[in-house]
Amino acid sequence: MHDAAVSIKNISKTFGRDFKALHNVSVEIGHGEMVALIGASGSGKSTLLRQISGLITSDPEADSAINVHGQVIQRGGKISTDARTIRSRVGMIFQQFNLVGRLSVLTNVLTGNLGRMPRWKGTFGLFSTEQKRIAMQALQRVGIAPQALNRGSDLSGGQQQRAAIARTLVQGARVLIADEPIASLDPSAARRVMDILSELNRVDEITVIVSLHQVEYALNYCPRTIALREGKVVYDGPSAALTPDFLSELYGAESEELFLPGLENRSGPADAKKPVSELASVAA
């Protein structure tokens, strides 16, 4: 894929002495794709997303690298000196929203400007009228403009997650990474958040990589799914190819918790019927 928004090459990550969270992961994601990242707890999803955003480094292997829009954010286990500039194009949304509860919703969204303004201005909250106008437009777009002056802690979980998305719009991110963004939300709020992510992908052509434990959302919103198991990519292909048998093996004991309406009779392409142990060649 020559026109990659995110290129990951031979990335591994070891925690402690011998816990290998990622094993030689190589993936390319094109501009404007919306991709789901799935796998059981501990499969390496969050670790991979934090690698892409440059929040953690990979193992120091000479041929490992992560590029975002053609620029190296880390190579050989070292963060690039240009990482701060590159991160300004990468929006990160976490499960726990990461809003400052005592600050207004508007101020929380305005912090998306911090990577592009002098630090002393950010420290004192000296945002311009234009920056505030853009922040209000972002809040309007995610449907919570009336709550702009409320404290962040006064919002519901779904509203806080929408504020976090608005913050990435203010940031001007062209790659949006969402780590389990709907895991703690009720179904209605979860659908609203996924609808917003889908609209940003479709209308603004923002590349979206979203880690999901609720597989039905991957099927409904993401044309492509990447599945991890024990730190390895075991499937990379159409979401439509995912079947109950494959997902049950992928998630193991956790599969009993999966809510998969409409999947009971899904057959899908032949590759998705193979057990996880045979799917490494599909991912390659």
Structure, described:
- α6 packs parallel to α7 (187-204).
- It contains eleven helices and eleven strands.
- It has 284 residues and is α/β, with parallel strands linked by helices.
- It is globular, with a radius of gyration of 19 Å.
- The chain folds into two domains: 4-89 and 174-283, Rossmann fold; 99-173, no CATH class.
- Strands 7-8-9-3-10-11 form a six-stranded mixed β-sheet, sandwiched between helices. A five-stranded antiparallel β-sheet has the order 2-1-4-5-6.
- It starts with a strand and ends with a helix.
- Helix content is 33%, strand content 24%.
Entry keywords:
globular, Rossmann fold, 11 helices, 284 residues, five-stranded antiparallel beta sheet, alpha/beta, single chain, 2 domains
Query: What gyration radius follows from the Cα positions, in whole Å?
Result: 19 Å
Assigned CATH superfamily of the largest domain: P-loop containing nucleotide triphosphate hydrolases
CATH class of the largest domain: Alpha Beta
Could you tell me the number of beta strands? 11
Strand content: 15-25%
The CATH topology of the largest domain is Rossmann fold
- Series of secondary-structure elements, N-terminal to C-terminal: EEEHEEEHEHHHHEHEHEEHHH
Low-confidence runs: 267-284
End-to-end span in angstroms?
13 Å
Largest sheet: 6 strands, mixed
CATH architecture of the largest domain: 3-Layer(aba) Sandwich
Global geometry: globular
Q: Which oligomeric form is depicted?
A: single chain
How would you write the strand order of the largest sheet?
A: 7-8-9-3-10-11
Let me know the average pLDDT.
Answer: 88
The domain tally reads 2
Protein structure class: alpha/beta
Count of helical regions = 11
Q: Percent helix among the residues? A: 25-40%
